[in-house]
Amino acid sequence: MADMVKIATRESYGNALAELGEKLDNLVVLDADLAAATKTGIFKKKFPEKFIDCGIAEGNMMGIAAGLATTGKTVFASSFAMFAAGRAFEQVRNSIGYPHIPVKIGATHAGISVGEDGATHQCNEDIALMRTIPGMTIINPADDVEAKAAVFAAAEFNGPVYMRFGRLATPVFNNPDTYKFEIGKGVLLKDGTDITIIATGLMVYESLLAAEELAKQGINARVINIHTIKPIDKDIIIKAAKETKKIVTVEEHSIIGGLGSAVAEVVTESCPVPVIRIGVNDKFGHSGPAKDLLKEFGLCSENIINTVKSAL
Amino acid sequence: MDEILKKQLSITACKVRMGIIEGVYNAKSGHPGGSLSIADLLTYLYSVKMNVDPKNPKMPERDRLVLSKGHCAPALYSILAERGFFPKEELKSLRHIGAMLQGHPDMKGTPGVDMSTGSLGQGISAACGIALSAKLSNDAYKVYAVLGDGETEEGQVWEAAMFAAHNKLDNLVAIVDFNGLQIDGAVTDVCSPVPLPEKFSAFGWHVITMDAHDFDDIERAFNEAEKISGQPVAIIQKSTKGKGVSFMENQVSWHGSAPNEEQYNQAMSELKAKLSELEGN
Ligand SMILES: Cc1ncc(C[n+]2csc(CCOP(=O)(O)OP(=O)(O)O)c2C)c(N)n1
Ligand SMILES: [Mg+2]
């Protein structure tokens, strides 16, 4: 698996939007002075008249997006996760969430893998924030194939969607010819009976690597990819709880309020089994290369392996 | 301005620019353009204007500076190192794992940093809070806030502008670095915040415009600011993004990218030439 093609999911976002522009006449893409980084710049180059830069004003951008969408435009509003979910939280909640307007939020540079910019830009809270908004769909794709599919699905979906993309180039492990994306459906990537690793986003591939190594050591771990964190696929989680009796969750996000919390909520209500959460452990990040930070915060296959072993 | 002082400041500003390049080059990331455009401003403030003590960075009566455009931390770090708040050697580990110098200013970890910033638009509000506190307890210190021109697109900047004027914060000077560029292009192409002087005036501020790279003019502007009472002061400084490194000047692409080795060498040799010219006569 080592020599796989790597693409950052923000790149997939930009490319998918550029493709979408060909098909959707009513598409409008908004950004807040980060087109070069969120990769909406790819779209802007192809469809300059359908791209509106709102300047460094994320709260206003969410209101503009809401207004545009009420008239039937398909709107994608983009910024870093910190500013899309963080700065503009209340505008997203009251102008998009409450009226259930189908604005699609493309939030890039999520999580600790932002790297050198440090704590002010490393958003480990966005999934938690967005989960609390009634009717918000949250998608955190794991690779290029899934990210593009998610953008196409979101464009057709009749409701607000928060999409989370990463800065770091990550291995493309899904097969574009066979991959099927369905909002709200978890993906069983590897069957197993000893324990289940439930992962999302950047951590899915790390979980696959961990499971491969665990298999060599005689531990048969199931791996599930939860790309849609809300609404979450309860069935796949309950089935795993029943069949494997133990769950480890992995996310590049705070352990508070994200995937781990969502899984634990499902499990405690329907089939209580131990759930061990791997994520950012109620701490702020700091500057450094993304790869080193991921290691430091235990967001890597090595830590998943160790956690699984001590859980068994 | 006194010629000897002007020469000293020019030398320091050149060293500050070298520190910026050193930091960003070693970090392999960061924001050289907007850092270079405020090098002269920060040099003047920290060398002449501000009452600060590198040995006692938390001195209660010190003047405060909030770098509201926190991505230009390399400039702040470089002048703080020049002034002796911490060793210059620290600049080389900017943005590294475990380093004191974070990608954006961190008041918990870095001596001389008065406020943590990085999310645009928020620093000026904190600066208003610091200035208000001085008013409430009759403290004499001054507060300086440094903003980007792109940053003024944030609504929060204007909420703070309204607040500062309403509360007659004449101990607050906000300097807007009008370099004309943000990330996606020229500020007037992205979502134009101009005209800034008229906007600040309409919000009740005393407005001064200044040439950001001319110490005579910088002195004139700050001397005028000092005389204003009953209202906050906005200094709109006309600057050149990337100032001092020929190939970075006025180039939007140098907003947030680091030089490679060849570019680093060229930038440093330009600055070294400038420095020896200044020191030579
Ligand atoms: C709230 C917020 N939105 C977006 C960003 C990302 N960002 C960093 S710098 C920058 C452009 C700033 O332009 P300007 O204020 O003109 O700064 P300068 O030209 O002085 O570098 C942007 C959009 C941010 N740091 N904070
Ligand atoms: Mg600017």
The number of distinct structural domains of chain A comes to 2
Computed CA radius of gyration of chain B, to the nearest angstrom = 18 Å
Helix and strand element order of chain A: EHEHHEHEHHEHEHEEEEHEEHEHEHH
- Class from helix and strand fractions of chain A: alpha/beta
Taken from the alpha-carbon principal axes, the silhouette of chain A is globular
Rg of chain A computed from alpha carbons, rounded to a whole number of angstroms: 18 Å
Sheet having the most strands of chain A: 7 strands, mixed
| Main sheet overview of chain B | 5 strands, parallel
Portion in beta strands of chain B: 5-15%
List low-confidence stretches of chain A: none
CATH superfamily of chain B: Thiamin diphosphate (ThDP)-binding fold, Pyr/PP domains
- Counted beta strands of chain B: 5
CATH superfamily of the largest domain in chain A: Thiamin diphosphate (ThDP)-binding fold, Pyr/PP domains
- Count of DSSP-assigned helices of chain B: 10
**Name of the CATH first level of chain B:** Alpha Beta
* Record field, number of beta strands of chain A: 14
From the N-terminal CA to the C-terminal CA of chain A, the straight-line distance is 26 Å
